[in-house]
Amino acid sequence: MIFDLHVHTYHSDGLLSPEKVVEMAIRKGVNGIAITDHDTVSGIEAAIKHSKKLGNLVVVPGIELGCIHNHEEVHILGYFIDYKSKEIIDITEDLRRNRVLRGIKMIERINDLGMELTLEEVQQLSREDYIGRPHIAEALVKRNYVTSIEEAFEKLLNRGKPAYIERKTLSINESIHLIHSLNGVAVLAHPGLLNNQETIYDCIKKGIDGLEVIHSKHSKKDVDQLLKIAEEYKLIVTGGSDCHGRIVDGDYLLGKYYVNINHIPIMKGRI
Fold first, then answer.
1. Under a CB-based contact definition with an 8 Å cutoff, are residues 33 and 23 in contact?
2. Looking at residue 191, what DSSP letter applies?
3. Whether 243 contacts 269, CB under 8 Å
């Protein structure tokens, strides 16, 4: 029961539709995926419908909520959430509107820095009224202001850089509480990438259910350390590719990083 529990679609900053993601997962031979778009649940229904039509893939309804804690971004994954609830729809719609306004302000700041960039250019690279920093970065690459998306983030779009604008987020406490109120399982995303490792223990104190131990950017040292923490605090261990539909080293990441759902009783039972 191989599950990739961290997959994005073009309903946030991924490149592929929910239907294409489902088809890719089936081709890759995984048994299940979690759709975990940033701050939105709008792509889940399409993925579930398509998976039922094709008949051989489990789609876990999920979300990745962004928070600011200890002066850095922290992401909380929610699994098996009631994605049709009015509460989550209202909250995510507010976050979407704020994200779009923040994107517009970042584009304005880029222009103030002497680089010409329009909202229309960025919107052509995004879907579903979602404007994220990756879309702005891609537009900057197309304009030849930078040579890569990574360079755009390092020079302009990361926290503390000239074009960065803070966005509205939920707190870690609010994110965990929201996921639990939706009957979901809350997991700290890619904790090995945090600059301040104390954030892991802050999340544990706030009631996190698990750690994303397996991740495409985690080293073996990260995995070993996180496994020890999970064991010590009796947390579930999850994993996923964090696939955004980009080709990395000649292939898509989806299905390359995964967990056996049979080893996570709380999740297996819900499936």
1. no
2. G
3. no
Q: 151: which 2 tokens?
A: 């360079």
Mark out the alpha helices in 55-143 (DSSP H runs). Answer: 86-112, 119-123, 133-142
CA–CA distance, 83 with 71 (Å, rounded to integer): 29
**Which residues, other chains included, contact 151 with Cβ-Cβ below 8 Å and sequence gap of 6+?**
none
pTM, two decimal places: 0.91
- Going from N- to C-terminal start, the domains of the chain cover 2-84+171-270, 92-157
- What's the pLDDT tens digit per position in 46-64? 999 999 999 889 999 999 9
Distance in angstroms (rounded) separating the CA atoms of residues 86 and 89: 5
d(CA 124, CA 102): 17
Kindly report the CATH number that applies to the domain delimited by 2-84+171-270.
3.20.20.140
Alpha-carbon span 147 to 150, nearest angstrom = 8
Is residue 128 over pLDDT 70? no
User: Phi and psi at residue 38, in whole multiples of 5°?
Assistant: -70, 115
According to DSSP, the β-strands at 185-188 and 210-215 are: parallel
Q: Residue 215 in 3-state DSSP?
A: strand
Top-level class of domain 92-157 = mainly alpha
Picking from 34, 82, 24, 12, the residue whose alpha carbon sits closest to that of residue 54 is: 24
Please give the Cα distance from 211 to 262 (Å, whole number).
17
